[in-house]
Amino acid sequence: QVEPPGSYQQDPWAMTDEEKLQAVPQIHKEGNELYRQGKVPEAAAKYYDAIACLKNLQMKEQPGSPDWIELDQKITPLLLNYCQCKLQCEEYYEVLDHCSSILNKYEDNVKAYFKRGKAHAAVWNVAEAQADFAKVLALDPSLRPVVSKELRSLEARLREKDAEDKIRFKGIFSQ
């Protein structure tokens, strides 16, 4: 296949450390554009590639060193974008895992709490979702309208589930 000049993109595994560092902003930008176009799985793949480049560089640093921390701070927004894609793809347990890992390092990350709260709500972890949404409000009270909407949605889903359960289990114990 012949590609136009400048369109070839080297795979991350074949790049030098410097090339990886330089490629990340472009890969991030491509992921953002794909996301805006509604190509969510493709965007997730781009974010994953950018994260892989940075993680590869991070493995060569001493954990906790200034360079390691700097790379980690570049990984976090990419990981949050990746989690947003995974939320839309309904891959909730992956979101829970990644957001929890972010919160273990950065316990004031509002976006990680919000995304984890949405994932908890989706998998019926009601208490955990409510706790995460409460933490979002504690960290950023200006998000009250968005959080209230999520909590109302969760409550509505719970009422719907309870109604379905009543119908499903009606008469099960009266035989």
From TrEMBL:
Sequence ranges of the TPR repeats: 110-143
InterPro entries given in the database record: AIP/AIPL1/TTC9, TPR-like_helical_dom_sf, TPR_rpt
Classification via Gene3D superfamilies: Tetratricopeptide repeat domain
Entry keyword set: Repeat, TPR repeat
Record carries keyword Endoplasmic reticulum: no
Function: May play a positive role in AHR-mediated (aromatic hydrocarbon receptor) signaling, possibly by influencing its receptivity for ligand and/or its nuclear targeting.
Subunit description: Interacts with RET in the pituitary gland; this interaction prevents the formation of the AIP-survivin complex.
Protein's name according to its UniProt entry: AH receptor-interacting protein
